[in-house]
Design a protein that fits this description.
10 helices, globular, 254 residues
Amino acid sequence: MGKYFLAERMKNRHTYTEKLTVFMPLISVVLAAWLTSDYFTVDSYNWWYMILFPGMLSLVCSAVGNRDKKLGNRSIWGLPVKIGSVWDGKVLYGIRCMGISMLVFLGVTLGAGKVIGQIGGQVFRIRPTDGEQVLAVAVLLITSLWQVPFCLFLQQLWGTVPMILLHLGSYIMLSAELALHSFFMLLPGGIAARMMCIILRILPNGLVAEPGSLTFSQELLDWKALPMGIAASVFWFLIFWLVSRRWFEKQAER
């Protein structure tokens, strides 16, 4: 599997794909610092995991999947390779890009928060601790894994534009609603937003998770939902990976 992952890295080296993993987190942090300095940290996270991150991942998966698809995948079908492992390489490369973007986001958010607060003298209305932010990013990484095989599969099935519209549109519209219910783990789109209610005390709509905020309920802060959400995310990731892998193998058999 390792050589297929390295092959994907070679194919995407010096392309806009890897630039996105740095550029998109920076956009989230800069916008939050510029537009809502009082709530810098919470807005930076909320805009990141609700809009910019799924958008970035859609573009990354589009680029990764389209490298071979634009040639009808003939460059793969004719080679003496394990087709399933080729798909694994694409998924792992997508996860690598996701991990880099999360680390960049965490580092820049922590650094900017200290600069704005200590040097700029800004008093934040609410600011999660450094430990809470590290935990939040780790959980975001795990609860977002499913998006990689899901987006790659849609891109191979319908193409780039339908995949981006379907994934980003449905994610933005549905995740905010799904995260508020007890059955949030039944569909993967609402899990990450629900986890951030618990860890960072941020509602999907960007408001602070406290009494009086629109859509708030005490249930959203229950830490018992955290292991349940992580387990459900891993389950969805494995389902999407295995199903999409098998589908990709069948395309080569035709």
